[in-house]
């Protein structure tokens, strides 16, 4: 899967290039992320906030909507929160 491979290399622009311009997803800390530029900015922010991050994809297939171009994909980000999450201004906790 190209998404997982590009995400693992931390290539923000490469990951954004795999998305449609109208991509939208929800990050629990930041809220909605919309558009390719926002996806690249989001991944760079992950690296700043959690420099040792890695993604753990559960063994669960995506849920595809039958009536719209939508999917739900579960994933989990792991690492140590050693940098700020800004916005919204969450200070580092130095915790996993």
Describe the protein.
The protein is an alpha+beta fold. The protein has a single domain, classed as Nuclear Transport Factor 2, Chain: A (Roll). The chain has three helices and six strands; from the N terminus they run ααββαββββ. It has a two-stranded antiparallel sheet. It is globular, with a radius of gyration of 14 Å. The mean pLDDT is 88.
Sheet with most strands: strand arrangement: 1-2
Average of pLDDT: 88
CATH topology term:
Nuclear Transport Factor 2, Chain: A
As a whole number of angstroms, the C-alpha radius of gyration is 14 Å
Assess the beta-strand content as a share of residues.
15-25%
Tell me, what's the shape?
globular
The CATH class is identified as Alpha Beta
State the gist of this model.
This protein has three helices and six strands, in the order ααββαββββ. By secondary structure, the chain is α+β, with helices and mostly antiparallel strands. The model has no long low-confidence stretch (mean pLDDT 88).
């Amino acid at each position: 899967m190209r998404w997982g491979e590009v995400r693992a290399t931390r290539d923000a622009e490469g990951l954004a290039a795999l998305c449609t311009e109208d991509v939208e997803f929800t990050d629990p800390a930041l809220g909605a992320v919309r558009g390719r530029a926002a996806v690249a900015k989001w991944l760079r922010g992950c690296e700043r906030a959690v420099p040792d991050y890695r993604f753990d994809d559960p063994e669960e297939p995506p849920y595809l909507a039958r009536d719209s171009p939508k999917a739900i994909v579960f994933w989990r980000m792991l690492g140590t929160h050693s940098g700020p999450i800004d916005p919204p201004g969450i200070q580092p906790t130095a915790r996993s």
